[in-house]
Amino acid sequence: MKNTNIYKCSFLLIILFSCLPRTIWSQTPDVEATSGSINIDIQALARKKMAVVSWMQPGKNVITTQDEKYLLKACIKSLSKVAGIKIYVNNQALNDVATRGLKPKKGQCNGKYYQKEVSLLKGINQITLEVTNLAGKIVSEPRIINYLPKVVDTLPTVAEQSKNGQYYALIVGIGDYTDASIEDLSNPVKDAQQLYEVLTKEYNFESKNVIFLKNPTRADLVNTLDGIQKMVKENDNFLMFYAGHGYWDKRINTGYWLPADAKKESTANWFRNSTMRDYIASIKSKHTLLIADACFSGGIFQTRGLIDNDAPTAIKELYRSPSRTAMTSGSLSEVPDQSVFLKYLIKRLKENQRDYLSAEKLYSSIKEKVIGESPNRQRPKYGVISQAGDEEGDFIFIRKK
């Protein structure tokens, strides 16, 4: 008897359920009751899905541009009508004028794509799109556009900067010494001759502006430098080259060059490196470069970090700022008569095909070769002559046209 009652109750519930009015189901448009069953309206549910936004341009998460205007493109998939699109730059919505008139365009993506040209702010621009459809709003993944405006290069060219100036040089080679106790050298004068020829034939050094002293005395050096002081003007460039004996006195931390009349037992005719520094400070050139194949005092020579940049703008900037620099064979002890330093210096100057070659770049091109091939592992140096008026520019060699 119990089982029969259960069946009756179940049957009654089914009848009541099926007899409920259809209006109850009509409150939910996505489903409907038909003949006592429930059907889901797939299209109605799909219309409630959020839009899907895929970036087309920019295609990468982070890009850099020099253009103030940038064309944004995005592929938008939506099963319901897109009610609105907003563009945000650094979390700020663009005004109505900028966001008005976005039209869907078919093709180029599996759906529709929208494009809009925007004006970028200088620096970082974080771009997002907010898309609204029947299901609500969705915000795209951000794209970062780094706007770095083009730098207007207003610096005159090196040729324009140097046209009102001359390139002067004093080239000194000493191999014959009057004091028999000082060993003669066979190569300094030959090396100096080679440098003279490459400068006057290949670069902007007119022979009338280049003084070549072979085996000068101390008085010859002083008198010539006195004349150069008066001759070189502020728009001119001056190169000083010395090859010969040098001596480093570690007791007093002083370096000397030995003119042809130097005596081994007396410093009376020796030429102090500090004296050369004083001359360089007093010569009012735009750029002065000292090249020495002999010791040069570390106390007045400061190395500096190299800038490996020979782009036109960098070269112009280096020429614009005055410089007082030195390039040396690097050893405080005796340098070999057969100079690896001079060999590669002259070789690089001859092989160079650039219109403009900075002294720093020249040094960089010979340093490793000199270290690797010199018998005493000498390390060439390049840097600033301290207390001589350097302003972080550089000497620029200009090839003849």
The major β-sheet equals: 7 strands, mixed
Percentage beta strand: 25-35%
Helix content: 25-40%
Low-confidence regions: 6-38, 304-309
Query: Count of DSSP helices?
Result: 10
Query: What separation lies between the terminal Cα atoms?
Result: 122 Å
CATH topology annotation of the largest domain: Rossmann fold
Widest β-sheet, arrangement of strands:
14-13-15-19-21-23-20
Task: Give the tally of structural domains.
Answer: 2
**What global shape is seen?**
elongated
Q: Mean pLDDT, as a whole number?
A: 80
Task: Decide which structural class fits the backbone.
Answer: alpha+beta
How are the elements arranged and paired?
Layout: H1 2-18, E1 31-34, E2 37-40, H2 42-46, E3 52-57, E4 62-65, E5 69-77, E6 84-89, E7 92-93, H3 96-99, E8 105-106, E9 112-119, E10 123-133, E11 136-139, E12 143-147, H4 158-162, E13 167-173, H5 188-202, E14 210-214, H6 218-231, E15 237-243, E16 246-249, E17 254-257, E18 271-272, H7 273-282, E19 287-293, E20 301-303, H8 312-320, E21 323-328, H9 340-351, E22 356-358, H10 359-373, E23 381-385, E24 396-398
Parallel strand pairs: 4-12, 13-14, 13-15, 15-19, 19-21
Antiparallel strand pairs: 1-2, 3-5, 5-9, 6-7, 6-10, 8-9, 10-11, 10-12, 16-17, 17-18, 20-23, 21-23, 22-24
Helix pairs in contact: 5-9, 9-10
